[in-house]
């Protein structure tokens, strides 16, 4: 524009920056407060008694530590197994959806993959409990694992399918023109190209499994706890400082994972 | 970016004929462990209650009758409408709707602000907004409870600064649940709206400005209609999980802020539960969610057709 009139900056709206800051403040304030109080010396969770890592020591060596450690172990084992299983299933599904041409059940399959995202969590929880009870599976690691495997599939599928969308099949076609078998073309060409998507898919599934409380709480049965159900049980008795230390540790793990997934996503973009 | 093959990568048929083999695990796992369970739940909602929890295989409409109708203490009074459960559903819809509106009011300006930064700052801001989404929902809800308790830091700070002289008493109220829902699902609004604003073509705004439209007129008449699909997607992503939320009402609310999630959960806890009634409540919740999703799907197809 060459006019003498001062150009209106159409990207700016007064107040939007302030609202963004408020939004970030709302998102972080509760987490920050808990992180600050987790290093509070005092046994009272309301008064500030000076800096101390005592509650972190309590998490690892205190009277409740065996319970939380067993729960954390269960959570990690379930998240690794369910995440891996869901990633393998989702990878296979993504190859079929993007490399098998047109087939009859394609739309129905797409709906089925997304079903765990559409059914409200509490409904999935109830349905799983009823199903496992009806077929006589008693609650435990096994039922938790099967439930997690199921709801992790769409979360693993999303990044893998997004990645597939941008991989042209000309590389595989070229390999097959040079007498690679379809199996070799998959292993040597397609799989390496899919890798960043598969990594993000696994991380997403892993975090979603680790995050779940409601479905786990319904199907876990007596005696078996994951970290969220153990924390929920403890919180019901009142928030103690060791809960804040555990929360802060989990916050740290989540931040590490997001950063990792972000870095992998970025390296994936570069290699393309 | 790799060049797309003619016809697009999705149309490729290198593994044609292998679809069944590749999709069998997906069909089996989701089919057996979600689709069949949901169908079984539908059946259970028509069964008779067993007093120790569980069911007797006798078909009846008792669960739905109990949900909608009041037949008095002994079940022989003339039926009138039972408001207890409809009331809980109504409160849930209301709370989820309000959370959606609040998330939109805060989320839209935030998404707009982030999308109009340069590429580098955009990634930084996006990371800042997404990190809380990755933090365990239970941990976030507990953090909110800790912050707003009567003895918590929020009340302490307000009392110390002399703004109030007694705790606000937010905890265990509808307001606390609302705060929890808003806080839990805010990132779900920001991300899809951001994706829509990022694709927005600013020459539309320039054209409107050349025709003497004011900033707010442009927002109302040009920008909002263009980014509407992103806004609708964000609203659904907030509304649907808020409606069936369990943690926020359970940890932050009290007896008067009971929501659907807690109502259903209670029916499966111990001997006091009622499995058919819980299954029926879950069916009604799912019906509401499916109506919302179908309305969304229809608006999407209408959008693409025009």
UniProtKB/TrEMBL annotation, chain A:
Residue ranges occupied by any ABC transmembrane type-1 domain in the UniProt entry: 72-261
Primary location: membrane
Record's keyword annotation contains Cell inner membrane: yes
Transmembrane segments: 15-39, 76-97, 109-135, 141-164, 185-208, 243-264
PROSITE patterns: ABC_TM1 (PS50928), PROKAR_LIPOPROTEIN (PS51257)
Location(s), subcellular: Cell inner membrane; Cell membrane
Any one GO cellular component localisation term in the record: plasma membrane
Presence of the UniProt keyword Magnesium in the record: no
GO terms (BP aspect): transmembrane transport
Recorded topology in the membrane: Multi-pass membrane protein
Protein role: Required for the activity of the bacterial periplasmic transport system of putrescine and spermidine.
Similarity field: Belongs to the binding-protein-dependent transport system permease family. CysTW subfamily.
Protein name: Spermidine/putrescine transport system permease protein PotC
Lineage, broadest ranks: Bacteria, Pseudomonadati, Pseudomonadota, Alphaproteobacteria, Rhodobacterales
TrEMBL record, chain B:
Keywords on record: Cell membrane, Membrane, Transmembrane, Transmembrane helix, Transport
KW Cell membrane (keyword) present: yes
Protein name: ABC-type spermidine/putrescine transport system permease subunit I
Subcellular location: Cell membrane
Record PROSITE patterns: ABC_TM1
Transmembrane regions listed in the UniProt entry: 27-47, 93-115, 121-142, 177-197, 218-240, 275-297
Keyword Transmembrane: yes
Gene Ontology cellular-component annotations: plasma membrane
Similarity remark: Belongs to the binding-protein-dependent transport system permease family. CysTW subfamily.
GO biological process: transmembrane transport
Membrane topology qualifier: Multi-pass membrane protein
Domain of life, per lineage: Bacteria
Gene3D superfamilies: MetI-like (1.10.3720.10)
Pfam families for the chain: BPD_transp_1
ABC transmembrane type-1 domain ranges (all copies): 89-296
Alphabetized InterPro entries for the sequence: MetI-like, MetI-like_sf
Main location: membrane
PANTHER family xrefs: INNER MEMBRANE ABC TRANSPORTER PERMEASE PROTEIN YDCU-RELATED (PTHR42929:SF1), INNER MEMBRANE ABC TRANSPORTER PERMEASE PROTEIN YDCU-RELATED-RELATED (PTHR42929)
């Amino acid at each position: 524009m060459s006019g003498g009139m001062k150009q209106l900056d159409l990207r700016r709206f007064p107040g939007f920056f302030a609202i963004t800051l408020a939004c970030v403040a709302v998102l972080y304030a509760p987490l920050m407060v808990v992180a600050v109080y987790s290093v509070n010396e005092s046994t009272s969770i309301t008064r500030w008694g000076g800096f101390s890592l005592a509650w972190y020591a309590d998490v690892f060596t205190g009277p409740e530590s065996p319970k939380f450690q067993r729960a954390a172990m269960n959570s990690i084992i379930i998240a690794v197994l369910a995440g891996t299983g869901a990633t393998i299933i989702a990878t296979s599904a993504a190859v079929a959806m993007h490399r098998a041409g047109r087939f009859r059940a394609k739309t129905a399959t797409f709906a089925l993959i997304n079903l765990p995202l559409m059914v409200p969590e509490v409904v999935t929880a109830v349905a799983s409990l009823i199903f496992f009870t009806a077929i006589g599976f008693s609650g435990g690691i096994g039922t938790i694992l099967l439930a997690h495997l199921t709801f992790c599939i769409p979360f693993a599928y999303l990044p893998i399918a997004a990645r597939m969308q941008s991989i042209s099949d000309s590389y595989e076609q070229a390999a097959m023109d040079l007498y690679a078998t379809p199996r070799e073309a998959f292993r040597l060409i397609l799989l390496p190209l899919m890798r960043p998507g598969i990594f993000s898919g696994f991380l997403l599934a892993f975090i979603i499994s680790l995050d779940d409380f409601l479905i786990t709480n319904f199907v876990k049965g007596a005696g078996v706890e994951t970290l969220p159900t153990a924390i929920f049980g403890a919180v019901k008795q009142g928030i103690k400082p060791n809960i804040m230390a555990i929360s802060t540790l989990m916050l740290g793990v989540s931040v590490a994972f997001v950063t990792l997934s972000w870095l992998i996503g970025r390296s994936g973009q570069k290699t393309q | 970016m790799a060049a797309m093959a003619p016809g697009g990568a999705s149309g490729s048929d290198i593994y044609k004929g292998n679809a069944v083999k590749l999709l069998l695990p997906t069909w089996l796992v989701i089919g057996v462990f979600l689709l069949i369970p949901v169908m079984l739940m539908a059946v259970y909602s028509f069964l008779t209650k067993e007093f120790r929890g569980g069911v007797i295989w006798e078909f009846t409409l008792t669960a739905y009758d109990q949900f909608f109708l009041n037949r008095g203490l002994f079940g022989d009074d003339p039926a009138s409408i039972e408001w207890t459960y409809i009331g809980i559903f109504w409160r849930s819809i209301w709370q989820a709707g309000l959370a959606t509106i609040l998330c939109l009011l805060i989320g839209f300006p935030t998404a707009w602000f982030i999308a109009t930064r340069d590429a580098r700052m955009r990634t930084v801001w996006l990371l800042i907004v997404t990190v809380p989404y990755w933090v365990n929902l239970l941990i976030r809800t507990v953090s909110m409870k800790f912050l707003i308790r009567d003895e918590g830091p929020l009340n302490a700070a307000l009392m110390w600064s002399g703004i109030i002289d007694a705790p606000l008493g937010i905890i265990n109220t509808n307001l606390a649940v609302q705060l929890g829902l808003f806080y839990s699902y805010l990132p779900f609004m920001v991300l899809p709206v951001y994706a829509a604003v990022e694709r927005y073509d600013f020459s539309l705004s320039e054209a409107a400005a050349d025709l003497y439209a004011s900033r707010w007129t442009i927002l109302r008449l040009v920008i909002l209609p263009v980014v509407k699909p992103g806004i609708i997607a964000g609203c659904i992503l907030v509304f649907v999980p808020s409606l069936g939320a369990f943690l926020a009402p359970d940890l932050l609310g009290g007896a008067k802020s009971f929501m659907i999630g807690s109502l259903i959960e209670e029916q499966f806890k111990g001997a006091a539960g009622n499995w058919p009634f819980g299954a029926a409540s879950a069916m009604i919740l799912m019906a509401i969610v499916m109506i919302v999703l179908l309305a969304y799907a229809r608006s999407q197809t209408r959008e693409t057709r025009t």
